[in-house]
Write a structure and sequence with these properties.
The complex is a heterodimer of chains A (787) and B (172).
Chain A: H1 15-20, E1 36-42, E2 48-54, H2 56-59, E3 64-69, E4 105-106, E5 112-118, H3 121-129, E6 132-137, H4 144-147, E7 163-169, H5 174-182, E8 186-194, E9 206-212, E10 217-222, H6 227-239, E11 246-249, H7 265-277, E12 281-284, H8 287-293, E13 300-308, E14 314-326, E15 353-362, H9 376-394, H10 398-405, E16 412-413, E17 419-420, H11 425-435, H12 441-450, E18 454-463, H13 471-476, E19 485-491, E20 497-501, H14 510-522, E21 529-533, H15 550-577, E22 584-587, E23 590-593, E24 599-601, H16 602-610, E25 625-630, E26 639-648, E27 655-665, H17 672-692, E28 722-725, H18 745-764, H19 778-786
Parallel strand pairs in A: 1-12, 10-11, 14-15, 20-21, 27-28
Antiparallel strand pairs in A: 1-5, 2-4, 2-6, 3-5, 7-15, 8-13, 9-10, 9-12, 13-14, 16-17, 18-26, 19-20, 19-25, 22-23, 23-24, 26-27
Helix pairs in contact in A: 9-18, 14-15, 15-16, 17-18
Chain B: E1 2-9, H1 13-20, H2 23-29, E2 33-39, E3 43-52, E4 55-69, E5 73-81, E6 87-98, E7 104-115, H3 117-146, H4 156-171
Antiparallel strand pairs in B: 1-7, 2-3, 3-4, 4-5, 5-6, 6-7
The chains are: A alpha+beta (787), B alpha+beta (172).
């Protein structure tokens, strides 16, 4: 019988009531007295020298409050990068300046040149049209390998070249890996591209800056996944505003998928301009603008080699990757192809030797940063595609080859610096074989073939490092921040509870799942508990929501704070019951003296804390509010096995996903319905990447797929009903809830399954195709089959 | 984007050459052209209103002529800025060859590129649009030089007279 409340229950998401009835409060819903609107004039060239900007005519136009250009930001800091990578030579990465508005040069289509603040958006837009910009066009560098050639045009004139860094990991293993590959019984080689994606959250980015002259205080409302991080980065590095004079609020946010982690120029601009104009300044991105100003995702070009011995045991893996940084370093861009990618290359396998070399390259394109999975989908795609290709080359069953090489003993220290605490990869594969009805595939293929269709079957595993992250470890790796989180549990006099959490919810359902945990611990009803998040003036601190960390890190802080609450409440109860603290038990919201029928209710204890007439004031303070910070001891390692079945029309090359099954190990689960929803969404995005989505640039650096006419987002009819299971559970050993995180798994685990299935379908039709790049669009599939 | 095509124009190369250098002829021929001023030496300033897929814009541009080898070949290069819609720029190499029957074979090779919203929203239709624009331009140009195609079987000398008259009319 499933639980109906507390941990393990699936109450419907309470936040959905406001989202579905139009009563959500998104940044663009917030309008304040005296508000102005900003329109950014953006470069339509990928690369050029700004010769002159004439704003005189525009400034005289109706409604214009003020026009800003790069010159207004010369004394202001630039947009910082939060992670420094040390290259193969032990040198820091090349880190170019990233001004709020372009100074001297434009470096990608969408680079903001000027900003018009006006009484209305229309007036701002009209005035922006009247700004005369003289730009001397320069050749654009778009292709990463071309960008690294001698004599290539430099994106940043003050850097030596377009190479941000060359990173090797584990550099000490490099020679041993080369040697193992040379001596292997079999080596499978694969060159592939992880296609560039645009996140496309439902709500585009919005920023509203306000300044209060009375107390010299700035407030920014913004569509962010981590308001405290924005306060820190923007306050300390860009605008020089101390934290106590700056409030950042991320109210309801309509999806992030990573692209709302980063600190963007528009946020700094609105905060800066609100003070400069002494008027609130609002920016609302259009969908078109989002395509050329939101950080993109992925964009890796990779050669991967897998060495096997004569018994098909993996002996070494070597990965050479070119990672596109775009024109500037976005907040966490440098960490994605390195620590979030290289440390995952052991995957689920006992491969003893792994080496990866990553060249991060500047190009005249939109900056690239974390997108759902961030580095881990790239690693998973590389490993699971090359393992699948190896199985085909060796003529062995792809599942058997994987099982043979699975890590089976835990904890397991990989050759790429991380230690998996728990996992059971055979258990998730066993579960997958059942829910995917792998035994029935042959019959389904026969049915498809009767209709003249090809049917393909693809499977893959994944492992991810989530619960980001142990601060001391990431500090050693170059992170310029700690990655703990915080929660305050505020118990009110009558027993209801407000929990202030550092994790931000923008679709994850924290407002439902987090109360389930506190309710379970105290034994009261979830309706008595509310979650407060997204406001730096209300929440103690927080590093935000990304890397499937909310429950594993912030949830753990909340557990620690609740434990403190319970300890104190027990002392109060002991006083009221005239018993020893150690004899007090808490169950179902009742404090009782062990072995007696004496008890006092939760509400009586909380009231006593705030009306301390009969209270141990000499021992403890009145009130009932506790804060905890939690820094994880390790990453968490969710894992799973995924299976995709496609039907392929040999006449047109169109691929249809007929079945998709996911068996995940997320450790313990608080709300199974929310977890399933997270997996569904992730798989949807993974299928989108595998079959549909592609951010395409032409050779001049023009983004060609910058609207939904050309950028194909997955729609309901592109995805099947999913079979999802998360019962194969090995709890995390180092956080109090035993949870691992589920937010990115679907996006990490699904693309290789889809492509493996497409390859299988083509080969079943007699086409000797061993690889196809994503997205496997009908034209690409058709061309591949034609040879 | 590259395009090349040719038109046979029923007029001597000298007349075709003169027409290419004439602002009024060009204005008449460029689809959507609302203003055209200038001359062959200094180049032409043009204003063109066009709709490319979902993007409607007024382009203001400058066209220069170079590599002029009268009356055989020249190069046109131009750039138009469409404000929020982006930009279009390109060049055309035009060659005129006298045909056996005294007419002119006009061959052109166009290289063009677009940027900004035009590239972002219209990329799928830009190639087709550009081809259509080029077709329209050279069809208009052929018609402008040859004059209205009436009385197809009129004597050749009369046609010659009519053409000249028409060209003079718009030049004056």
């Amino acid at each position: 019988m499933p639980k109906d409340h507390g941990i393990g229950a699936s109450p419907k998401r309470r936040e959905d009531v406001r989202f579905l009835t139009g009563t959500g409060n998104y940044t663009d819903d917030i309008n304040v007295y005296g508000q102005t609107y900003v329109y950014f004039l953006r470069s339509d060239m990928a690369h050029g020298n700004i010769k002159n900007i004439d704003t005189a005519a525009a400034a005289a136009m109706s409604g214009v409050v003020r026009i800003f250009t790069g010159a207004d930001f010369e004394g202001v800091g630039g947009i910082p990068c939060g992670w420094q990578i040390t290259d193969v030579h032990g040198e820091p990465m090349q880190e170019p300046a990233h001004p709020v508005l372009a100074i001297g040069k434009v470096r990608h289509v969408g680079d903001p040149i000027a900003a018009v603040v006006a009484e209305s958006l229309e007036e701002a837009r009209n005035a922006a049209e009247a700004i005369e910009v003289d730009i001397e066009e320069l050749p654009a560098v778009v292709d990463m390998k071309a960008a690294l050639e001698d004599g290539a045009t430099k994106v940043h004139d003050d850097l030596a070249n377009n190479l941000c860094y060359e990173w090797g990991f584990v550099e000490d293993n490099r020679a041993a890996v080369d040697e193992a590959i040379k001596n292997a019984a079999h080596v499978t080689t694969l060159e592939l591209r992880n296609n560039r994606l645009v996140a496309n959250p439902m709500e585009p980015r919005v920023a509203l800056g306000q300044y209060n002259r009375a107390d010299d205080h700035s407030t920014l409302h913004t569509t962010s996944q981590n308001p405290h991080v924005i306060r820190l980065l923007m306050g300390a590095f860009v605008l020089g505003i101390p934290e106590h004079k700056l409030t950042v609020i991320a109210p309801d946010v309509g999806g992030g998928f990573g692209t709302k982690i980063f600190h963007y120029a528009e946020e700094a601009f609105c905060t800066f301009a609100a003070k400069a104009c002494n008027r609130p300044v609002k920016w609302t991105s259009s969908r078109s603008e989002a395509f050329i100003s939101d950080a993109h995702g992925r964009d890796h070009v990779t050669k991967i080699e897998l060495a096997l011995d004569a018994d098909n045991n993996f002996t070494a893996l070597r990965c050479d990757t070119y990672a596109n940084m775009g024109a500037y370093l976005s907040t966490f861009a440098s960490s994605v192809p390195t620590w979030l990618h290289g440390t995952l290359l052991a995957a689920n396998y006992k491969t003893p030797l792994v080496y990866t070399n990553v060249k991060a390259v500047f190009t005249n394109t939109v900056p690239v940063d974390a997108y759902r999975g961030a580095g881990r989908p790239e690693a998973t795609f590389q490993v699971e595609r090359v393992v699948d290709k190896a199985a085909r080359e060796l003529g062995v069953d792809p599942i058997a080859l994987r099982r043979q090489n699975f890590i089976t003993e835990f904890p397991y220290a990989t050759p790429v610096a991380v230690e998996y605490d728990t996992g059971d990869y055979n258990a998730t594969m066993d579960k997958l074989e059942v829910i995917a009805d792998i035994a029935g595939f042959k019959a389904r293929r026969a049915e498809s073939e009767k209709k003249g269709m090809l049917r393909g079957f693809g499977v893959n595993c994944y492992i991810e490092a989530c619960g980001i992250a142990p601060s001391n470890l990431v500090g050693q790796l170059g992170a310029r921040a700690g990655l703990y989180d915080a929660a305050t549990v505020r118990v009110n006099a009558t027993g209801s509870i407000s929990v202030m959490v550092g994790a931000h919810s923008h679709g994850q359902g924290h407002e439902t799942a987090f109360p389930q945990v506190v309710a379970e611990m105290i034994g009261i009803d979830e309706s008595q508990i509310d979650i407060v998040h997204g406001d730096t003036s209300k929440v103690p601190f927080g590093m935000g929501t990304y890397g499937s960390r909310s429950l594993a890190v912030c949830g753990s802080a909340m557990v620690r704070a609740t434990e403190k609450i319970i300890n104190k409440a027990k002392k109060i109860a002991a006083h009221l019951l005239e018993a020893a603290d150690s004899d007090i038990e808490l169950k179902d919201g009742q404090f009782s003296v062990a072995g007696t029928d004496k008890s006092v209710a939760w509400g009586d204890v909380t009231l006593a804390a705030y009306v301390p007439h009969n209270y141990p004031l000499e021992d403890i303070e009145p009130g009932l509010e506790e804060t905890a910070f939690y820094d994880p001891a390790n990453f968490t390692y969710p894992s799973g096995a995924y299976c995709c079945e496609v039907e392929l029309d040999p006449e047109t090359g169109k691929v249809t996903v007929e079945r998709f099954s996911a068996a995940d190990d997320f450790g313990n689960i608080v709300n199974p319905m929310i977890v399933s929803g997270q997996v569904h969404g992730g798989i949807g995005q993974g299928i989108g990447q595998a079959l549909l989505e592609n951010a395409a640039y032409d050779e001049n650096g023009q983004l060609l797929s910058a609207s939904y006419m050309d950028y194909a987002m997955p729609r309901a009819d592109d995805v099947p009903f999913y079979a999802v299971d998360h019962s194969a559970c090995t709890p995390c050993t180092h956080n109090p809830l035993g949870v691992k995180g589920c937010g990115e798994a679907g996006a990490i685990g699904s693309p290789p399954a889809v492509i493996n299935a497409v390859i299988d379908a083509m080969q079943s039709g007699g086409h000797n195709v061993t690889h196809i790049d994503m997205p496997a669009s009908p034209s690409r599939v058709w061309e591949a089959m034609k040879g | 984007m590259h395009m090349s095509d040719s038109r046979e124009i029923n007029a001597p190369t000298s007349e075709v050459w003169a027409a290419i250098l004439n602002a009024d002829v060009l204005m008449q021929c460029v689809p959507g052209c609302t203003e055209m001023a200038g001359n062959a030496t200094d180049g032409f300033d043009a204003t063109v209103v066009q709709k490319v897929g979902p993007v409607k814009a007024t382009f203001k541009g400058h066209v220069t002529l170079s590599d002029m080898d009268e009356p055989k070949s020249l190069r046109l290069a131009g750039e138009g800025k469409g404000g929020a819609a982006g930009f279009a720029k390109g060049g055309a190499d035009v060659t005129l060859t006298e045909t056996e029957n005294g007419g002119t074979l006009l061959q052109y090779e166009v290289e063009a590129k677009v940027g900004g919203k035009l590239a972002q929203l219209g990329s799928r239709i830009v190639d087709g649009f550009a081809k259509k624009m080029a077709d329209q331009f050279f069809n208009n140009f052929k018609a402008a030089v040859e004059g209205p195609a009436e009385d197809g079987d009129t004597a050749e000398e009369a046609t010659g007279e009519k053409k000249k008259g028409w060209l003079k009319r718009i030049v004056s």
